[in-house]
């Protein structure tokens, strides 16, 4: 079985080295499973030197800065051969438990999008599964005390660590590249559910996410987030065709 992790480096070297280090420490080696990591350097050329017998690494160096969805779609299109699972992985994640890829990946269904159980640094469950974005629940989240989400009743999974069967990602045509950053994860889950595909959280597969929350700290990121939200509402309302 071949598994690919796609990671975008946007000045995240410190986080990515930590991700690689914890992956190497916790990954159980199996001859029948091959793990390859594609790191897309979004701002500058970089060669990643990390010695491991458990996985391989290759790089894509962008000449211009691309958005979240564009980078992962580009990595998917640059695969040398088909893989079984294509995984979207945030650079600011890391492993803290043993990772048995056979136990986790062997029985995954082709018609589902999966996510590990994502934890904050204090090991509490992170805010990564949510109901579909709407004006009311968005205002509730931002202006009022938000209620705890239901892990058994959600509409989308955050793009922190998403696991796609190769054929499923291909059928969905990847992320809509008209989102530059933010809401692409909600959109791809919405499109998948419309086509009858399911979402599932793997509660036996846990990772830590060091959330950056840049849209709460920077006006530039905030306006990117706002632009993506308006586009998502417009797209859902007027049923814009997904990019070819």
Put the structure in a nutshell.
With 244 residues, the chain is an alpha/beta fold. Helices cover 31% and strands 24% of the residues.
Please give the CATH architecture: Alpha-Beta Complex
The backbone outline, from C-alpha atoms, is globular
DSSP strand (E) fraction? Answer: 15-25%
Structural class: alpha/beta
> What's the overall average pLDDT, rounded?
87
Q: How many structural domains in the coordinates?
A: 1
* Distance between the ends: 28 Å
Measured as a percent range, the helix fraction is: 25-40%
CATH top level? Alpha Beta
Order of helices and strands: EHEEHEEHEEHEEHHEH
What does this structure look like?
The chain is α/β, with parallel strands linked by helices and 244 residues long. It has a single domain, classed as Spore Coat Polysaccharide Biosynthesis Protein SpsA, Chain A (Alpha-Beta Complex). It is 31% helix and 24% strand. The chain is built from seven helices and ten strands. The protein has helices spanning 13-26, 68-77, 101-105, 135-143, 166-171, 184-194, 219-238; strands at residues 2-9, 34-41, 56-61, 85-89, 93-94, 112-119, 129-130, 156-157, 161-165, 198-209. The strands form three sheets. Strands 3-2-1-4-9 form a five-stranded mixed sheet. α1 links the parallel β1 (2-9) and β2 (34-41). It is globular, with a radius of gyration of 17 Å. The two termini are 28 Å apart.
